[in-house]
Batch of 3 targets.
Target 1
Amino acid sequence: MHLIDPDAPERARKIKLIIFDVDGVLTDGSIIIAGDGTESKAFNVKDGHGIKLAMRAGITAAIVTGRKSEVVRRRAEELGIEHLFQGALEKSGVVGELLKTLDLSPEDAAFVGDDLIDIPAMRMVGLAAAVADATDEAKRHAHIITELPGGRGAVREVCEFILKSQKLWESSIERYVK
């Protein structure tokens, strides 16, 4: 994890909500469209488990994506993510509404993005994370940048960083290591 902002651990201690983009964050950005029009995406199991660990620790997870996809709906359902917003071309507006709905302040939220469309949402939250292969513009607006690229463990890195900053990592993995 690259700490761009030296206050990133303090920012992470306040996080109650982690918001994820999909293409380029939860996936490597590839979209596979078969001849019959069905769409496929590859999701990383370790990323999914990181989200589950954060949720079990009491952190809410949300997905805000510009595209609409049945595959994403199914992945969100599989992970137990209740806050799914697809077709969100103005992500900051969706994030603002979600914060109101959950009665949270911007400092209580993290956003993980990778591209230009994510920057307004990244700028409005307490902890902005960019994946390793994000655009330079997105990285310039990040408090942290992952070592791993989108769809290849970056989400797990962010979840672990937040849980470790909140001193919840050990209790989160206790069921596996005892």
Note: The mean pLDDT is 96.
Target 2
Amino acid sequence: MNKPLQIISLGAGVQSTALMIMAERGEITPKPDFAIFSDTQTELQETYDHIEKLKKMISFPIITVTAGNIETDFLEAVNMNDHRSLVGRTATPPFHTKYNGGKGLLFRQCTRDYKIHPIQAKIKNMLGYKKGQKMPKDVIQAVIWMGISYDEIQRMKDARVHWIKHTFPLIDRKITRQQCLEYYDKLKLERPVKSSCYFCPYKSNAQWKHHKDNQPELWDKLVKFDEAIRHGLNTTRSVGRDGKPIKEAKIYVHGSCKPLKDVDFDKKSDQGKFSFMDECEGMCGV
């Protein structure tokens, strides 16, 4: 029986990058066969630049896969102006919603469809299996190293398929995110930015404020995107959890359910209830 592939799931953020470097330096073994990055095509430019730098630093391959552009797919569904088409036609990010006097979240499908599934499909293909072909039972064919740190232990999850095993080298060694940052400083390496889709609703106010104050082109893009998705649920053919027709339903990227351009990121009243740590799939942003 062949040994299972050893693979790093590369989110291109602080933790998974630290894991890459530790593996390259032989501090975590065995050496991976490759790392794999699933591109939503909406990452920050800093993340794409960082991956190109990693390719020059790391001796094992970094493979990129994609399920398409999540921004384009979502906006196309929103423009249909039909809630049923929106949640059934595209993998929705957990954007914040406001309707019938209450607040809620869209059902999150983005991590599954734009991160997990493309990675699994690529690994299956590399193992020589065709799409739709059943995998042998009770055989682990790939071990995926997850870049989740000890302080984020709640994000640990088993693989959703029987032929993949998740491992958590940083957690096994009780390495925290802060220790990862100190690791970069010790090696005199540049610290990676937190990776995520540019419009990710799990961003903190500090991150939104950084975009606004320091990245005018990105901020303008964010504001336009936020406005573009606003009325994606505006249809009387849909009903809310209360069973009543949804009226004047609106979608927002920010947890305050205010237009992004109007949010005061320094006011507690404009703080969203959610943070990046609520993203618990263990695939994004690590």
Note: The longest strand covers residues 5-9.
Target 3
Amino acid sequence: MTAARAALMQRLSTIGWREAAPVIGAAVAFGILFWQPMVTLGRDWWNDPEAGHGLLLAPLAAFLAWKRGWATDGHGQRTDARGQPVLGIAILVGAVLLRYVSGLAAELFIMRASLLGAGIGLVVFLGGVRQLIHWWLPTTLLALSIPLPAVVLGSLALPLQLKASQLGAAMLELRHVPVRVAGNVIHLPGQSLFVTEACSGLRSLTALLALGVLIGGLWLKSVPGRALIVFSAIPVAMALNGVRIFLTGFFAYFVSPSLAEGIMHYSEGWAMFVVAFVLLGLISWGTAAVEGRVLARRAA
């Protein structure tokens, strides 16, 4: 346990009811105001496959915030950066207004964004912007755990479906498989493969972006290095989804049409995600090696 965390625990053990009452009141008010977005968010994490990554990201963000603790100096002591009550209250007021407006319009995404905004306001109120910067990784993971609106998901899924269909068909042609593409449908002799929204690669892209943020935040030091690993997730996800469609068509044409669905189809998806994980790991390893050389030269 760090000195700062030990001091915090000692401080908490000496807090009396008079000091605790405002904190308890604020927690109750927060729960009442944001109960609906919290419940609907948890329900979507549990029931919606497109939002299931939140079940992992939210607890991980909480753990990372607890692990990092308060911003400290090089000696483990909390810095003299203080809370910014005025700015924090302004953010909280904005979040509450956003919560009210989104409730009137029944807009879940904005309602959930107001929940995140209220949390940011509390952090700024207690620890200032410096503390928010110190917790940038948990905050980013929480933001990524909020499901996008259905209209946005639909507008993203369709181009990904078309691109994945084109990539898969191109690979099949390289293997001399007679193929014709019509939108998101790949026509093979005697059968057709439909690249549905679930096969667009959007789920794997979302998961890989979150994984890139996590890897960059934990193992890389520079902003360009972190940006590289995050943006690398996009072509990796798209390319491997094209490979998945190629394998589906290849096995359906040369082996059996039944291999285009069922357990084989889902197994290909999991296998491609493992390959994507390995590729991101290799990219981050190479980026970390470059960072180490650059830092060594600067130190010399």
Note: The two ends are 34 Å apart (CA to CA).
